[in-house]
Amino acid sequence: MSALITINEIYYLIGVILMLLVGMTLRDKGNPKRVTTALFWFLFGSVFLFSDLLISTLGKPMAYRIVGVIVVLISLIAGCGLLSIGTYKQRNAEQRQASANKLGNWLFLPAILIPVVTVLCTVLLKDVAIGGMYILDQKQLTLAALCVGCICAILAGWKLTGGTPLHAVRESRRLLDSIGWASVLPQMLAMLGGVFVVAQTGKSVQEIVSLFVDPHNRFMLVVIYCVGMALFTMIMGNAFAAFPVLTAGIALPFLIVGQHADPAPLVTIGMLAGYCGTLMTPMGANYNIVPAALLELKDKYLVIKTQIPTALTLLVANIFLMYFLIFR
Amino acid sequence: MTVTELLPLIGIPIVVAGFALKFNPLLVVTVAGLATGLSVGMDPGTLLETFGEKFINSRSLAVYVLILPIIGLLESYGLKERAQDWISSLASATSARILMLYFVLRQGFGALGLTYIGGQAQTVRPLLAPMVEGAAAARHGDLPQHIRDKLRAHSAACDNIAVFFGEDIFIAFGAVLLMDAFLKENGIAGIEPLHLGLWAIPTALAALAIHMFRLVRLDASIQRDVDAWKKTNASNANEVTA
């Protein structure tokens, strides 16, 4: 049975938004690298607009190969430093302050609508169908609900501020430009995780771990996974990069398969154990070193030093939370 | 354990070295992927195919693009200004109380997906750190640099910890979607991003409790630092006059 709002339509919507941003970037004379910046977002957006079309016309292997080339091009553009930030016609500080005063706390309403509508739709519209058609994509329920939430928020924002949806898209270019290449990083890391799966990297980690740990000692396995996530994140500077390797290497074989642990709390707390590592490493430069510079601290490691007590205590808390929550 | 069994790990030192040498992360990840695939004997064509397949299958990670327009719109109509006015109208007096209030708000907003409200450059430097320093100066008089630095570092730490352990509750955040994609990729079905978000709540509460406990003691620790500094200052002054 098909659905009214499917995940593919959401991807088209993302693609359309990205293409609008490409057009705006191309017309932005104030962006010193506007052509390559636009190319970057065009390549990224085309994955959303044309993947399904490519798969249906050329077949999976060829379509995947083309997207593979696109991915390499995207990383080359970013790697050669060809992305830059544009110029934006913004409302000035006085105008913003004036509307902030006028609208008051109502300004928070559209933003709060997104999670509220998402949760309500997920809970209430599960399995709901009209005329043999589900309202929301049942395979990606939360994301379809999120899309409804975003649309509600845009409509509410339009009504509240008088700024149209197109104006909203125009404003979002500033945010997307400031996130820059980092916006593609999660997908790239998921891809690297996928390559690790194919190359059976987790198996190598698994073999190393099995040399040292008794696979029946549940508590020890939890400790190894949590501390491993924190240490690995400290080395890589990013919990996202550590996650697929250690989860495939430790959590999946030993805890989920071996000990029938509940996967949802396991992976969530595992990721958060990784975040404890981010707080303790200069490799997480954006969070730890950049602020030290911004705040003109004499000791550039002072932010890390300040964070270590919370990070270590929280890592211990995560170990116990995980142990008690995954084996209920 | 043989060398061939360790070959699939080749991507890890590449990622480590790449991040350490500050190459662009997208490039580092791509090179690590290429090296891993080639080292286990995949041919380049198949490897590109794997790249494309995994990239297409993780498209859900980009749904945050849908959220940007509304945040952008609200920002242009004064969302940040409103948030700032709100904090300053609520915060009374001490450094620690301002930090606690900021922590709770930042974590709460993060849980709602509003991670763009706040941040080191946008909020901590222009707003939070000056407010925290101002509150301490109002109480203790002029402050030496090392105490100012301590307060600033606490401001930065507050922002990081609050947002790290708040944002994972929000289902459209990258980490949640990455976990979702990982589970589906490994054939574990029946878990929605919403569940993953809910399981982030216990750690969020633990982070709140642990960091609040530290902040509760911050005002007293600043007082001690100031007293110690005044004492050494006084004895230095005595030595000079003596």
TrEMBL record, chain A:
InterPro entries: DUF979. The chain crosses the membrane at residues 6-26, 38-56, 62-85, 106-125, 140-158, 179-199, 219-252, 264-287, 307-327. It comes from the Bacteria. The keyword Transmembrane applies. Keywords: Membrane, Transmembrane, Transmembrane helix. This is Membrane protein. It comes from Collimonas arenae.
UniProtKB/TrEMBL annotation, chain B:
InterPro entries: DUF969. Coiled coil: none annotated. Keywords: Membrane, Transmembrane, Transmembrane helix. The chain crosses the membrane at residues 12-40, 61-80, 157-178, 198-216. The keyword Transmembrane applies. It comes from the Bacteria. This is Membrane protein. It comes from Collimonas arenae.
